[in-house]
Write a structure and sequence with these properties.
This protein has 246 residues and is α+β, with helices and mostly antiparallel strands. Helices cover 52% and strands 13% of the residues. It is built from 10 helices and 6 strands. The protein has helices at 2-24, 39-52, 64-71, 75-81, 99-106, 116-120, 122-129, 157-160, 191-209, 212-242, and strands at 59-63, 92-93, 132-134, 142-144, 161-168, 177-186. The strands form 3 sheets. It has a two-stranded antiparallel sheet. The longest helix is centred in the last third of the chain and has 31 residues, at 212-242. It is extended.
């Protein structure tokens, strides 16, 4: 029995230890600092998504009405400021880009982003949004160190500006690799402001990947309070039950 429990504990430790590496996708990722507990950040992230991303990317598992409820927005605020496709309030967030046109323009239709953070991790998404650079050899003029040769132009370039890559010399039989990115043409935001903006956008996509996390955090407080009260009552009941037992 002891051997069985030890084997189970070891397997659990290995599984838990492997999960972050799988979720984050590598050791060279930037730390996003994304959180679903900051409602103002989620609102800013939603504004960024609907102004810069929804033209190509859908959130097919998220409804406008659910988003309004979770983010503390009114129906009027959502429909006037975040709905650019003519969808109804109870409709899911679907991009109005035709799939056939997307395939023609980008080689394939842009992916739905409902589960992007769940699949790749918040740090990966944040790193990706901060890793675009000008690439004259790319057919779209842009490349990305987190996802090389991504078939996606950089939608946030006006905010961040334009980065260029400083390359490492190619080794024998190999090709040159990116050593670091340099901001050669500043955008509307300072680097710190842009990092906060991409943190907000990542937080919003993290919320979209698991909307129930907001309720889980809220209910967790009440569950802990219930357990504390139950423990107190159980202790009092035990004391009362055993007081006459010698």
């Amino acid at each position: 029995m002891k051997s069985l429990l030890s084997s189970f504990a070891l397997a659990l430790v290995v599984l838990v230890g492997a999960m972050p590496a799988h979720a984050e996708g590598g050791d060279a990722l930037m730390k996003s600092g994304a959180t679903v507990r900051d409602q103002a950040s989620l609102q800013r992230g939603a504004r960024l998504f609907f102004n810069y991303c929804v033209g190509c990317h859908s959130l097919k598992y998220m409804r406008y009405s659910r988003m309004a409820e979770d983010l503390g927005l009114t129906e009027q605020e959502v429909m006037q400021n975040l709905n650019f496709t003519g969808a109804k309030f109870d409709d899911p967030v679907i991009s109005h880009m035709p799939a056939a046109s997307a395939g023609k323009w980008f080689g394939k239709a842009p992916p739905d982003l409902s589960l992007e953070v769940e699949a790749r991790g918040a740090d990966w998404v944040y790193t990706y949004l901060n890793s675009f650079y000008l690439d004259p050899h790319s057919p779209i003029g842009w490349n990305n160190t987190a996802l090389p040769n991504a078939a996606m132009p950089f939608p946030l370039w006006a905010l961040q500006g334009m980065q260029t890559a400083e390359m490492k010399p190619a080794k024998a039989g190999g090709s040159a690799t990116v050593e670091k990115l340099v901001l050669s043409h500043p955008g509307k935001m300072t680097p710190a402001q842009y990092q906060q903006a991409t943190r907000d956008l990542t937080s919003f996509l993290q919320y979209v990947s698991e909307p129930a996390a907001l309720q889980r955090h809220h209910y967790g407080i009440w569950v802990l309070l219930f357990l504390a009260l139950f423990t107190l009552l159980a202790a009092m009941l035990k004391k009362e039950y055993w007081k006459d037992v010698h």
